[in-house]
Amino acid sequence: MSILPKKNKLGFFEIRLESIGGLGANLAGKMLAEAGVLGLNLNGSNFSSYGSEKKGSPVKSFIRFCDSDTEIRDHSPIEEPHVIGVFHEALYKMVDVVSGMPTDGIVLVNSTRGFDSIKDDLNIKYGTLAIIDALGIAVEEKTKVNTAMLGALFKICDFLDADTMRDVIRKTFEKKYPHLVEPNIRTFNRGYEEVQFKNYDISLNVEKKDFERSLSLLGYETQEIGGVILANGNSILKDLSGSRQGFIPRLEMDKCISCAACDTVCPDNCFVWEEGEDKRGRKQMFLKGIDYQYCKGCLKCIEACPTVALTEMREESGYVDAHRVPHKFPLLVGGAI
Fold first, then answer.
1. Other C-beta atoms lying within 10 Å of the C-beta of residue 309
2. For the chain, what percent of residues have pLDDT higher than 70?
3. CA 105 – CA 311 distance, rounded (Å)
4. Which CATH fold topology does 13-200 show?
5. Nearest CA to 326 among 270, 276, 287?
6. Which DSSP letter does residue 21 get?
């Protein structure tokens, strides 16, 4: 008898991890598949999808399980997963992370916010929502988000053997990073114990949200004459919040000396300046604030700051919107940006 709780028409139980590069979703997918294969004698496969510059950009990891008498001949991306793991909640701004989720599906989100707030942001109409403060656990245990997410995923996928996962964690870290074995096992255990769930029953007037494969807006048949690039890499509309790994710089203006050390090392020109006069009436540029829209949380500015005006803080919901100082870009000829 099969131990898999659900199967699609090909006989697979499928999991999709939505993340950004640097949070360990690729490794988490490998470890998750390994635990299912070694611990339960299931057939399993795993692969990830990401661009050339993985860190900070969207990453997907796909895991398939099936019974030992079923062959895995499908190696396409998972479009209708039974379980979705969202490693970074700001991804919904860039990616439809719950695309293809079935009516009885489960989505796990790394967040400290309430269920209904996340439900509205992700546009979830049905299924089960699970929340885990994976970043908080990782900070306290000095590990990474992925192990806490794995713990929560094992609570969700209760057919998997948690002890096998602990053995996989030991095997993964003991050779190169033996000092990280026990902290990662503690992180896994906390993720398993601290995840919370809330079920949303599908209503009569809500239809299942089918998977929609995104198509290129400008292909070889629809490209603008002259090859005009409408969404260039340094567009002022670009929002880098989805690339942050949970931390941002906090600026205390009363401690700032406007030395520009932060601006010198910032790779994305996040700091906003304005012209003023010093105590002797001489013209000088003064730091006005941070445009967090462009901040990817590299924290190089904190290392460069000679005072304590810039400090590291965990990003809290609403803080960026309340403290952002927008750049004022001039309009070009014709009113175009």
1. 22
2. 84
3. 40
4. Pyruvate-ferredoxin Oxidoreductase; domain 3 (3.40.920)
5. 270
6. B
